[in-house]
Amino acid sequence: MRTPLRRLLSLLLLATASAALLGLYPYRQALLPVADDLPTARQRLADHLSLYTPAGDGPFPTVLVFHGCSGQSPGFVDNVRDWLLPQGYALLFVDSFGARDIRDWHPVCDGKRLWGNERALDVYAALDLARAMPKVDRQRLALLGYSHGGWTVLDALAYDGAAGHGFPAAGDGALDGVRGAIAFYPYCGFPAHLRQGVAHSAPVLMFLGTADRITDPRQCLSAMEGLSPERLQVVQYAGAGHVFDQRSDLNTYQPGLAEDAHRQAQAFLQETLGTAP
């Protein structure tokens, strides 16, 4: 009797393991990304950076902007430029999808391709490239990420140049010059590395909507609860959904909340980067 029972249990275990593997198969690109490194990432991103500067010669304090999982649309760029460029900061938009020839954003939003912990390498590469730009003040840099881009920025701070998901260590100076980071409604669930702690000391300003059904704000509150008030400011908007700060297909735009968030973000940048020239 024992032998048939053992065979049955073995078959059940094999069936369970096979089902689990089949369930993970659609996520293979995200789970097992192609090995990457900083020089390759710099080369990939070089033609996919867009720098906007105020009038004048500079160098200007600069905000590096990372789009969400639906990509870097012209409307997204215009929105950020409209509220931030007049404040005197240069803006460097980082098109992670263009750099990888990603034309269908759905697999990224579904978690089947390019997790934020893999994309964190783009932050280090973009910073490297930005520091070589004459109009960029390499000592006064900030990171701004939206949704998937917020996850990307926070994981870059969490790794702080150490080896990450699919890439080797970028080095101790990977975040040199970064004085602050802003994350709008970021993803903070598994497998975000930020859940293990944020190693870099730059202060973070995070905007969350309590009615967000795309990213769970409770995961961010839980993941970041170990940071002191000096390192983390959290602004929660009651009843706000995902992408509350700009027009989108989600129809969650709330102009009053957007204006308030932009005002607080501008104050944060003035405090961390100093007054723009």
TrEMBL record:
It comes from the Bacteria. The keyword Metal-binding does not apply. Pfam families: DLH. The keyword Hydrolase applies. This is Dienelactone hydrolase domain-containing protein. Keywords: Hydrolase. One of its GO terms (molecular function) is carboxylic ester hydrolase activity. It comes from Metapseudomonas otitidis. Residues 51-272 form the Dienelactone hydrolase domain.
